[in-house]
UniProtKB/TrEMBL annotation:
GO biological process: mitochondrial tRNA wobble uridine modification; tRNA methylation
Reactions listed under catalytic activity: 5,10-methylenetetrahydrofolate + uridine(34) in tRNA + taurine + GTP + A + H2O = 5-taurinomethyluridine(34) in tRNA + 7,8-dihydrofolate + GDP + AH2 + phosphate + H(+)
Ranges annotated as biased composition (Basic and acidic residues): 669-684
Gene: mto1
Keyword Flavoprotein: yes
Function: Component of the GTPBP3-MTO1 complex that catalyzes the 5-taurinomethyluridine (taum(5)U) modification at the 34th wobble position (U34) of mitochondrial tRNAs (mt-tRNAs), which plays a role in mt-tRNA decoding and mitochondrial translation. Taum(5)U formation on mammalian mt-tRNA requires the presence of both GTPBP3-mediated GTPase activity and MTO1 catalytic activity.
Name of the protein in question: 5-taurinomethyluridine-[tRNA] synthase subunit MTO1, mitochondrial
Keyword Flavoprotein in record: yes
Organism: Sphaeramia orbicularis (orbiculate cardinalfish)
Family per similarity comment: Belongs to the MnmG family.
Cofactor requirements of the protein: FAD
Amino acid sequence: MLTKKIVPLQSFLSVVSRRAGHLAGRHYDVIVVGGGHAGTEAAAAAARVGAETLLVTQKIHTIGVLSCNPSLGGVGKGQLVKEVDALDGLCGRAGDWAGIYFSILNRRKGPAVWGPRAQLDRQRYREFIQSELLCTPRLTVLEGAVEELMVTDANPQEPGRHRVTGIRLANDSDPILASSVVLTTGTFLSGSLFMGRTTSPGGRIGDAPSSAGISNTLRDRLGLRMGRLKTGTPPRILKDSVDFSLAKFQPPDSIPSPFSFLNTHVRCKPEEQQSCYLTYTTPGVERVVRETLHLNCHVQQDTKGPRYCPSIESRVLRFPGRSHQVWLEPEGVNSDLLYPQGLTMTMPPEMQLRLIREIPPFHRAEIHTPGYGVHYDYVCPTQLSPALQVKSAQGLFLAGQINGTTGYEEAAAQGVWAGANAARSALSMPPVTLSRTESYIGVLIDDLVTRGVTEPYRMFTSRAEFRTSLRPDNADLRLTLKGFEEVGCVSSFRYQETVRVRDSLQEALTALQSLTMSPPAWRKKLPDIRMIVRYFVCLFFSGMEVLQYQDVSFEMLESVFPECLSPYKEFSQRLKIEAVYRPHCELQKRDIERIQREENMSLPQDIDYFSLPVSLSVEVRQILDRVRPSTLGAATRLPGVTPAAIVHLLNYVWHKGQKEKRAHKRQLHQKEDREEELSARNAS
Ligand SMILES: Cc1cc2nc3c(=O)[nH]c(=O)nc-3n(C[C@H](O)[C@H](O)[C@H](O)COP(=O)(O)OP(=O)(O)OC[C@H]3O[C@@H](n4cnc5c(N)ncnc54)[C@H](O)[C@@H]3O)c2cc1C
């Protein structure tokens, strides 16, 4: 069993400060504002990089709270959790500690797009995060509400018009100073809560919004463009009042897969996993939604909500006449509550009860806490650099929902990166960036800072052009080494472990490559596999090529060559995935190298980007048409032009160039032929 000594909140409270007085005038390398998913990762990452860090949050006991669904990961989001873990972040290990139901989503598709997901015990998750922060050297936690950011003139030696130098807390006249400030205030900036026709100020139920001072400083003093978004949460239902026999049982994975590369198993035993169920809405649900629309301010507002996690009201209005899925998910091992995923709603509480009772398992259900919506300010993220620093304000970094994203995983991913960069900036180290070709975090940040958002942004695998290389299984190889060697946010323990894994995998791949035999010899060894052999292509197959076959497992090869392959048993699944994806990834790698090689390739100035017969999005065509880059290298540096688009452009221009060269050669030959003919005729 996964063992960890959880430091209880009581001892946490005894070492953190609830009074800011003695910190006034003190200077930190980094101050992080907000103890949500972005803030906790940012504070821990900044401290790991070596910065003296202060985390200020409204209520210490809400550090690590899961505001909405107690779950982590999923399709696209699971990749982010693995990457945060690879950078030594907290959420993956917290998920392994708190998970009570594990499943890999998207299993029918290839492992590159599998989505590791877990239902969590809220209490355990919070305890783990609080305990980790307590044990993080160089990190101080302070309970308090930040009222204002301290702003001075910019340092003329650096880009930017202003410099943020610290924070001021509510009811405190003296500021606390810092070289870098990371704002991670989530849904709290000018937050208002909606339920029925009632509106009240709040960042989430039970929590006051962030003071208007921060929004005002961002908008008026720093001149940042801001917008407004909304989200919502479903009512929590008393578990005892639900008839589970009317819903379909959804079994968890028989063997839970840990999120963290440091864990070989999770805390919850496979047989102790909780149950999830699936049910569907009925026409009665649509009727109640329609009848209560006039009582529902949140739905009537034009503010954009999360398209891929919509309220039941939006689902019914967008897709009338359909029945919609509702997942019945546990809130914790000892919790009496059930989370009905898919039933986010903001109508008056009595109508919420009417609505849920239209769904068979909830015929007699009781609501413990009604659902509600929240509207909040966000900062248009195109004003940030790829290090998540505000371009116009030295020392100010933003991460999480404040940048227009939604979800714990998106927040955590930005948190690690903003925290690490804030620390590096404070310690006079250059910023570090992640590209779209090396991580989902790179894709997320690139999308935010180059395209911005018009609705709450969430991660999907389809956003990552190089998703076959950016797999959940290899996040450690992609990021841990960089995290240690270039960023400084990874412990040497994790680094050493990843080096061991990398070297062992490399040895195993070499061993597999060295096992070469003719197809008949392989058939003799593995009589059950169906090998399609194109003799004109190859007369010998390596173990690596054989492992690419769907019905061949590493264990099968190991049973045939135990002396050669047994040492690598622990990596059997990783080796299988590597074998399957390697040819494709090598092609992609070659594409990326080609782009680097062809940096100076000229792009014709008369090119009509709108009619190019290649796969480019309208958005990319518009950017290329507007800027008309002169070389491929210039095109790669255009915000919003993805590496995949560059590959298509490169192929098009290259093939066109080849065609023109051939045509030119043909013309030359024809000309030479004609001249020869002419001189022959003249001679005769
Ligand atoms: C009602 C609701 C519904 C949601 N629904 C979904 C959903 O359906 N799907 C989904 O993916 N995500 C949903 N989320 C979003 C998810 O909770 C967030 O995306 C995630 O928590 C964002 O993390 P964060 O760290 O940016 O902010 P948060 O987790 O919101 O944390 C912000 C932190 O900052 C602190 N803080 C704020 N202002 C100050 C200040 N001035 N001084 C000090 N501390 C401050 C707060 O106390 C809080 O601890 C929902 C959130 C809410 C509130």
